[in-house]
Structures are given as C-alpha cells and as structure tokens.
Design a protein that fits this description.
Elements (H helix, E strand, L loop, with lengths): L3 E3 L8 H17 L10 E4 L1 H10 L3 H9 L9 H13 L5 H14 L7 E7 L15 E5 L2 H13 L4 H10 L8 E7 L7 E6 L10 E8 L3 H4 L6 E6 L10 E5 L5 E8 L2 E8 L2 H4 L6 H18 L3 E7 L6 E8 L10 E7 L5 E8 L3 E8 L14 E4 L7 H4 L4 E4 L7 H9 L3 E3 L4 H4 L5 E5 L4 E6 L4 E7 L9 E6 L5 H4 L7 E5 L1 H8 L3 H5 L7 H10 L7 H19 L4 E4 L5 H4 L22 H4 L5 H17 L5 E5 L5 H13 L11 E5 L2 H5 L1 H4 L5 E5 H9 L17 H16 L3 E5 L2 H4 L1 H9 L4 E4 L4 H13 L2
Parallel strand pairs: 16-17, 17-18, 18-19, 23-24, 23-30, 24-25, 25-26, 26-27, 27-28, 28-29, 29-30
Antiparallel strand pairs: 1-2, 2-5, 3-4, 3-5, 6-7, 6-12, 7-8, 8-9, 10-11, 12-13, 14-22, 15-19, 15-21, 16-20, 20-21
C-alpha cells in the first residue's frame, strides 16, 4: 500500500487519490516547470493512508452514527456533531508504517534537515470545477520537525469534519463517507518576510476573460483570504502580456495595515499579525516586472488546464523568487458565455451610509444585522444583510442566510468576496466603517452596479431586467457605446456592440484625477491653501505631480480600451467648459470668468492656448502611454469643438509634437462635427482627420441658435428639426464622398425610430448610444434597415 506520493509522481489523473489541490500541484510541478513556472517541491499522503487510519482506529462507523444525528432542517447541532467527529480523529493513532513513510519523505525533501513546510488539506472532492469554496479544510504553515509535521497531518485529517466542511458537503450533495483527506506537504516559501497573494485568470466580478487580476499583501496570504486587510490590486491585459512594453492597465494601492508573520510559542511554530510599517503600507507589494511575470505564469496555467483558474502565489523574502503555491478551477464564471444577462438598476438614490469594493452586479434590500463572530449566527434571519468586520470559512453556514454581505475589511479576493460570488449575492467589502455607519436592524439597500458598491439608507426601489443577448442581431450600421465610467466597462463589454464611438474622459478626470491639470503643472503657483493641501494628499506618491494626472487618466482610458479590444474605442480629448474646469481642485485660479462658457474657452482652441497647452500635453502623454506602452492600439482620438481649419492644423501639429502623430502605430484622429462651420467646410477638414462624429446636441443648438441647457428654451431645442437634420445629412454625404467614416453620438436615434431611419437612409457609418439606450437603439436601427 502506498501512503506517500511525491509531487514528481503526481498529475491530475491522481485526483481521486490525493485530491484536487495536491493533484494540481503535482501537475504543475511536472508539466509547467519547463515553462519557467516555479512550484515548491513536496509530497502528498494518499486516500488509502486516510482510509487505513480511519479503519484501523475504528472511527468510520462512529462518524457515520454521529452524522445520522445531524439536524438537517436547521443544523442547530452542527457545532456539536463537528466537534465530536474531529475529536474522534484527533484521538486516533498514526500507524508505524505511515509515520515512517512521512518521516522519510520529509527528510528527503529537506536533505536530512528539519526544513519548514506548509501542510495543506486536499479532499478528494475538493477543487472540482463545480465546487470550490474558500478554505473548507485547514492549512498549517511553517511546520518544522517530524513531530510537529505528524501532528499537523492528523489535524488536517480532522479538518475534514469542520462545521463549514460538513455543511458544504450537505449543500453540494456530496456523501460524507466517500470523501478522503489527502495532506500536501510543501517546502515553505518565506513570504512572511516578503509578500503573497491570489490571482485570477479572468476579471472576478464580470467574468471578463481578457484580464488577469492579481491581489497581494505583505506577509502570508491568509490575510487576503480572511479579509483582514485591503490588498493591493493589479489588472493585466492578457492579449498584450508578450507584446506590449507594460500590459498592467490598472493598479490600486491597498492599506495593508497588518502583515502575518511566523512566531515561535513554547517551541511550536505559529503565526501572528503585526502592524505593517507605514512605508510598506504606502508601497506596492510587487513591481511591474513581477506583476507581468506572475501574469504570464497564470496565463500558462489557464492554457494548460483549458479553463479559468484561481491561483495562489508567494514571494520568498530570502531568494526573492516568485512561486505558485496552489491552483484550482475558478467556479463562478467557468462556463458563463454571458449570452443571458440580468441587469439591476436603482430607480432612486438615497443617503449613502458607506461604500467599498462591489462584488457582483446586483442589488438587495433588507434589515442590517451586525454580527461580531460566527457564534452570533443565530441572530441573522433569512433575508437580512450581514454587516461585520470580516469573514472566514467559519462563517460559511451563516452566509447562506444573507441576501447581501457588507464587510469593513478585505478586497476582491477575500473570503467574503469569493463566497458571495458563489452564492450569487451582492457584497461590498473593504468599507472601513460599516459597523459605525450602519445601525443594527435598520433597512438598507446594497447596490453593486459598478466596481464601487454603495450602502444606502432605507429600502430603495430598483429594476431587474432580463436580457437574452442571443436574440439580438447587430445591424449593418455600427451600433456603439457612449461611455464615461471605467468601472462599468467590463460588464458592458458583453452587450452586443461594435465598440465605443465616444469615450468621455471628463468623468475620469472628475472622479479619478479630481485636480485641475494646470494646478499640477504649476503646483508651486497654487494660491488656495486648502486646495494645495488636498493636492499634496492625493499626489504624495509622485515626485512630479504631472505624472499623477498621466497615470490616473491613462489607467481609466486603458480599462475602456481593454474591455472592448480589438474593437475601436474613440476617446474624445477633454471638453470641459471653463466653469466646469474651475470646479476641479485648484481650478478657479487657472480659468477665466465667462458670460457664455458654452461658446467660450473650450475644445480645440484651448489645447494650443498658453493657458492650457501644458495641460494638453498631459492628456496626449496619457493616451500615448495607453497606445504605446500598454499596446492598446484600438484606441483612437477625437477632437471636440474645432471651429476653424487653422485650429485643426494647430492641434494636429501640437499632438505630433507631444507624441501623437496621425498614422504612426496606426493612430487615427477623428473630429466632432458640432458647429455649422464643420459641415460647410467638411471636405477641407477631411484633409486633417480620419473620420468624423456628429455631436447632435451642439450642432442642433448652434444651428437653431438655442442654448441646449436653457430650461426656458427646451421646447425649441429639437434634433428632429428640419434645419438640424439637413445639416446632419449634409455632413454625412460630404464625409462619405471624401471616403471618411462618420458616426453620430446622441439620444435621438434610440428615442425616435424615425430619427434612426433618417440616419440609416443617409447611410451613416455608426450610431453611438448611452448604455441604457443601446438595446433600444439597435432595435430602431434594425427596423430602419429592414424598411430601407
């Protein structure tokens, strides 16, 4: 009988013998090492070893009898049953043969030295594609010496009957008596003096498959799983991993207040959380080269297993090498093709109590129930919303009762996040203040409509819309998005679409950058003390404050370009008006007071003006970074409010000076058609631009001479007006004659079928819609094309 198998003897064919976790480690150790993927060596105990232990200690029938007594209606005696089952195993004795086999394998692993090892549980039904809850069975780290190892092995055996594992098997319909426990013993990676974390081979919220998502903390990775700290997070664009200079499109610095390290207590190894030094809290755990290397490994693992994967990684503080310590199938999005979609949307807004990272894309209302520990689980009633500091696997039996979960700590790869995804309930993690801001028993609404989730006071009304994308046919006329919020990009990418016809960068500047670019360029000249203080707080990581603008803007744009790659994404250069720019931090000092900002210092004229030229350079550098460093050449650029041919020449020349040369690396530059002069001289404008997009709102207001923002003149403003439509028709005809593509951005084609019919009749190239209007717009275009 074989009690032990070394990793070099294992593959996924041995899953029934050593469980998914250990089989996967052996598979990677043998198949991916040649590709450069580092997996710490080790060995695993077999299922035969477990059954021999159970039977030789006369435990099997006793456990069966115990589990017959389990109250399967409300599981009120689960704690007692679990404790008794574990005690039966812990009181058992390991056979001499088994003890000798473990001792010999351990000594061989350490070249006859007592090396520290990680001792992990791997059930024979664990980590299957259909079932992978986080941490059902126990892991013991930094185990050193044969005696401590044998004790850890027995404790792993006992963890087959943790309360959470028993409940999990009941929920999944697995037979308790057909599952064995294999123990993996693996060389310890000294991440306690470095860092560790988790990686997904897809974006964990939306299931978007072109992203590798990595999270990391200082010290041991248990702090991520337990949700004790908010980790660093990185998004890497898969298609560019081996093509672009830097495919890291998103980075988020976590607080990482605690670091889990090893400790010695009475001669026994243990772990303890210590406060992370401030300089490490304020530093990313991985550099860009390490992020890319790790992403490359995760991509190799995904390709090898031919499915999305959930990977654990660690960095050794002594050798400074990265290692993969576990890999299991990702279970939430594995077979999801996103043909069928359920969309949630709040119908009203209320008082925001707290906010954090959104998990899932749904909404729930219910009574808030504040629990300090799993022992208080009896207080949570079905349909209530769990509010707590953090969760661990011990919470699993309780979580199934909650319609939503809100935690103060943890990131997107924490235990609470993983379980919420599997249960299909919304969760908001890392709020930092939920237990202070939310009252126990009060009605609240948990809303996860983007990457940021909000908890609102009261039960707010919301819509649920079921959409079958399989029934929607895209028209010949391209149907594109008008977008502004990067947080919704991955989710919206699953909708039928031809790309993004208008990406407004103003949202990114307002919500991510927040600071007027000239206040960054000329920070020393900023006069307002309060503004200067806020700028210092937001940009403290940057020696050159201009880099803050470039980095934040480029990340927001990159997410959009990546979400729709390889479809084109057209980003419009900033089109704030002076009164809007003035509202940015530090902005009033750098903006003129204008009677009519709508017709004033905006658009192309601003870019080459001495008052803004240096800020325009930052916009160009951000776009250049997305296209050339991140490799997202599907990004195209559009110039708004270009009044004259001279302005077109000036801006095109200035963009070339700032590194955005038309035609270089296939860069296309478009122009908004918003002014009658654009239509009248469109043939001449076509010499400078690769395509056009009609801004129907501005073109209508300037054609009719009516302020589109005026409530008094609202009845006069009408895109269906014959004069406005004639202007648009003329622009389309001239663009097509010049061999240029031309689209339209506006609400009218979705609101009015006859307007869509007019544009289709004129043979417009594309029509762009806001997300809430896209599907109706597609319907109207299809009807128009059918009747053409």
């Amino acid at each position: 009988m074989k009690y032990i198998k070394k990793f070099r003897e294992l593959s996924m064919k041995d899953l029934a013998e050593v469980g998914g976790k250990n089989a996967s480690l052996g598979e990677m150790y043998n198949e991916l090492s040649s590709e450069g993927v580092l997996v710490p060596d080790g060995f695993a105990t077999t299922s035969q070893a477990f059954w021999t232990f159970i039977k030789s200690n006369d435990i099997e029938e006793k456990i069966k009898d115990l589990l017959k007594k389990l109250n399967r209606d409300n599981f009120e005696n689960l704690t007692s049953i679990g404790a008794q089952a574990r005690e039966l195993i812990l009181s058992g004795t390991l056979s001499d043969d088994f003890t000798q086999a473990i001792t010999a394998a351990y000594q061989e692993l350490g070249n006859d030295k007592d090396i520290p090892v990680a001792v992990r549980s791997s059930a024979t039904a664990e980590d299957l594609p259909s079932a992978s809850f986080a941490g059902q069975h126990d892991t013991f780290l930094n185990i050193k010496g044969t005696k401590a190892l044998l004790s850890a092995v027995k404790n792993c055996f006992a963890s087959l009957y943790t309360n959470r594992a028993i409940k999990y098997r009941e929920d999944k319909g697995f037979s308790h008596h057909q599952i064995a426990l294999s123990v993996g013993v693996q060389k310890m990676v000294r991440s306690d003096i470095s860092c560790s974390g988790i990686g997904f081979s897809l974006e964990p919220e939306s299931g978007f498959k072109n992203i590798i998502h990595i999270s990391g903390v200082w010290g041991l990775g248990e702090n991520i799983v337990q949700g004790l700290v908010n980790p660093d997070e990185f998004d890497v664009f898969k298609p560019m991993i081996d093509k672009a200079q830097n495919p890291v499109i998103q980075k988020k610095l976590g607080h990482k207040e605690l670091s889990m390290v090893y400790a010695e207590s009475n001669g026994h190894s243990s772990t303890v959380n210590i406060e992370t030094p401030l300089e490490k809290q304020d530093s990313f755990v991985l550099g860009d080269e390490e992020i890319i290397k790790l992403s490359r490994w995760i991509l190799l693992i995904e390709k090898h297993y031919k499915r999305p994967m959930d990977v654990e990684w660690a960095k050794d503080g002594l050798s400074h090498e990265l290692y993969i310590t576990q890999a299991r199938p990702e279970t939430v999005h594995q077979d999801q093709e996103k043909r069928y979609y359920v969309e949630y949307h709040l119908k009203e807004k209320g008082e925001i109590l707290t906010q954090g990272s959104a998990i899932g894309s749904s909404i729930a209302t219910g009574k808030a129930r504040f629990l300090k520990s799993p022992e208080e689980g009896h207080k949570l009633n079905p349909g209530e919303i769990l509010i707590t500091s953090t969760t661990s696997p011990d919470w699993d039996p309780i979580l199934k009762l909650a319609v939503a979960v809100v935690t103060e700590r943890g990131g997107r790869t924490s235990h609470a996040a993983i379980v919420a995804r599997e249960l299909g309930v919304p969760a908001i993690v890392g709020t930092s203040d939920a237990t202070q801001k939310i009252k126990d028993g009060e009605m609240i609404t948990v809303s996860c409509e983007g990457k940021t989730g909000f908890v609102y006071k009261g039960a707010l009304e919301f819509d649920i819309k079921e959409i079958d994308f399989g029934k929607i046919s895209l028209p010949e006329t391209e149907a594109k998005f008008i977008l502004s919020d990067p947080d919704r990009a991955f989710q919206l990418s699953f909708y039928p679409n031809h790309g993004v016809g208008l990406l407004r960068m103003e949202f990114i500047i307002t919500h991510k950058v927040k600071i007027h670019p000239m206040a960054l360029v000329r920070y020393e000249e900023v006069k307002e003390t309060a503004a200067k203080k806020i700028i210092e707080e937001l940009t403290w990581q940057y020696k050159d404050k201009r880099d803050f603008f470039i980095e934040e803007l480029s990340r927001g744009i990159a997410v959009m370009a990546a979400a729709f790659y390889p479809k084109e994404v057209i980003v419009r250069l900033s089109d704030f008006k002076s009164n809007e720019y003035a509202n940015l931090i530090g902005g009033r000092q750098f903006e003129p007071l204008e009677e009519n900002p709508m017709l004033g210092f905006r658009g192309a004229a601003r870019y080459y003006h001495p008052n803004y030229k240096e800020a325009f350079e930052l916009e160009c550098k951000a776009i250049k970074r997305v296209r050339e460093e991140m490799g997202l050449e599907n990004l195209k650029v559009m110039i708004p409010f270009c009044r004259t041919l001279n302005e077109a020449r000036n801006v095109i020349g200035l963009m070339k000076e700032f590194g955005l040369e038309r035609g270089r690396n296939s860069l296309e530059i478009y122009m908004m058609v918003e002014i009658p002069s654009n239509v009248i001289l469109l043939e001449q404008f076509a010499d400078y631009f690769d395509g056009f997009s009609i801004g129907s709102n501005d073109l209508t207001q300037l054609c009719l001479g009516v302020d589109r923002d005026s409530e008094l003149m609202a009845e006069v403003f009408d895109e269906n007006n014959a004069a406005a439509k004639q202007m648009m028709a003329s622009a389309i005809q001239k663009a097509l004659k010049a061999g240029k593509k031309i689209g339209l951005c506006g609400q009218a084609p979705s609101d009015f079928p006859e307007f869509a019919s007019f544009l289709v009749h004129e043979k417009i190239s594309s029509i762009s819609f806001n997300p809430d209007a896209l599907l109706k717009g597609i319907e109207n275009i299809n009807q128009a094309e059918a009747g053409r």
